[in-house]
Here is the input.
Amino acid sequence: MKTLGILAAPLAALLALSATGASLRAADVVVYGATPGGIVTAVRAAREGLSVTLVHHHAHVGGMMSNGLGVLDTIYDGKRAPLYDEVCARISAHYRAKYGADSPQYRASIWPDRSEGRRPMYEPHVAEKVFDDMLAAEKRIEVVREFYPVAAARDGRRVASVTFRHMHRAATRTLTAPAFVDASYEGDLAAVAGVAMTVGRESRAQYGEPHAGRIFLKAKFVTKPQDHFPTAIRTEGLNLRGFRATTEAPLPGSTGEGDLAVQAYNFRVCWTRDPANQIGPVQKPARYERDIYLALRDRWGIGGGNPNQKTSWNTPLLVGGNFAYPTADWPTRHAIAERHKDLALGLLYFLQHDPEVPAALQAEARHWALPKDEFADNGGFPWEMYVREARRLVGRAVFTEHDGLPAPGLKRAPIQPDTIAITEWPMDSHSCHDDTVPGSDHEGKVLLSEQTRPGQVSYRMLLPKEVDNLLVTGCVSASHVGWGTIRLEPVWMHVGESAAHALSLAKQARTPPASIDAAALQRTLVERGVMVTFFNDFDMAAPTPEERAAQLLGARGFFPDYFARLDAPLTRAVAEVWAQPAADPRETARRVQAASVANSPVIRGAEFAKLTGTAPPGPADAPVSRGTACRLLVAPRR
Here is the structure.
């Protein structure tokens, strides 16, 4: 593995750089990356009373949601974080208000059999409008567009300032703040701040991950919803939606060697089938790579399903064509993006005209073209490419494959004592190389939908080792395999809102974000409706005091599976473990698991109060419920 670090420039040099641009400006926090996660961080911080400068490398905000993603990648429909839920609700409300509750547009924005505001389908311009509206409503936010970081000044363990350069003009702007956030897809601010970053894939040996490094797998598909993966949906009763594919066991040739490969990128092109909204027929690009299109036979097709007869195309992937992107300068990145653009336009032209394409598919493909009402200043084509993986922080904790799998002996992923968010999407990676072995898909393609379980994002995964006032909420600290369950917009928005609350607490305490008390942050998050522990029994729509307590105690190892069972009576054996938890929450979880299968009587009120030192829960001889016990255990002791 290659670890990347860029030495910070001296402060005097940076001040000289700023002489050609704007003067220094102080805010409570500077956020780089107006991705969905970065926007949520900025909005929540502003609503908590902080002044925010939000910097983005492009003129348009919203990241991939404004660039054709078309859906929110999550298999959990519960309420998890207020601003994520607000974004979903605003999208659904747009279609209902503009077109009516009985309109095809509104129906297309809602996944079948799901309520409004849960994982909506949407058009790019709608997502951009939602984010623009949210930012415009917050007077404490200044949005700086078309600037990217080029240098940073450090003062000991503090990032003192960051200098940004305009994407198209010879202008710079140096910003100071008590705290900085890197919410970008590329991790550019963290890189210029000189913190350790990594690119590529770890070896299997580095973290002992079964699916790390060079690997060949074969995807297995099912067609019936009742057969979807993971089987835990049926056998463990998890409140998740199924996945129609999973990859099977590694095949010979899977050496587990690490390398600098990153999973393939593409543009999520938004095509329309509406003739009145079409720009015109797609023209054959000068760079027309027919050999690649022929090799993509299994991905021939258009799809559909988004509102107003649009689609979010996830084809084609240019495997290996992005390896230089993560650490490249912007001119090089733009050149890489241009090839991906030509490949996407050329594939549709190929499907419409090439004699190798079946006639029926040709006829269907000719119904589609770029839309007039999307990306109007870019010819109907998305502004940004789907950067699925670039740099990743090497932080104070690392989310590895193990953190998305059941912990040994438990039915829950490993517990993070400083958890601030959850993961749930199957750990996955698109192809990294285009070679194969007999019976395999392209090398590096991984989809662990059968194995993955909801995990926890540690606050330390946002914290660089070298500085204390920088939070990395986009390129968080994770291995290549672990990254697969984090790299989704719902998780990034969830993490971003939690990070904003951390920034607020840091300002109140006049301390760097790395120095705040994790337990205090968790109490704030849970009180404000942000999930820190996944439970199958309840979400964060309207948590009771018992449910809030369970969220907190989930970080202490009180629950070895995903069921809180708050209405059930508490047994004496479990109460004894809860009364004296181990220092390591994972050890506590193992002890609770053992106590849960013991033949133990229900504990009564007087005995529980004596055992735990809490206030009496009620009548002395009345059974104590698990929920009541949780509520009392997090309350101040007498």
Q: What stands out?
A: The two ends are 52 Å apart (CA to CA). DSSP finds 19 helices and 20 strands in the chain. Residues 606 and 620 are 4 Å apart (CA to CA).
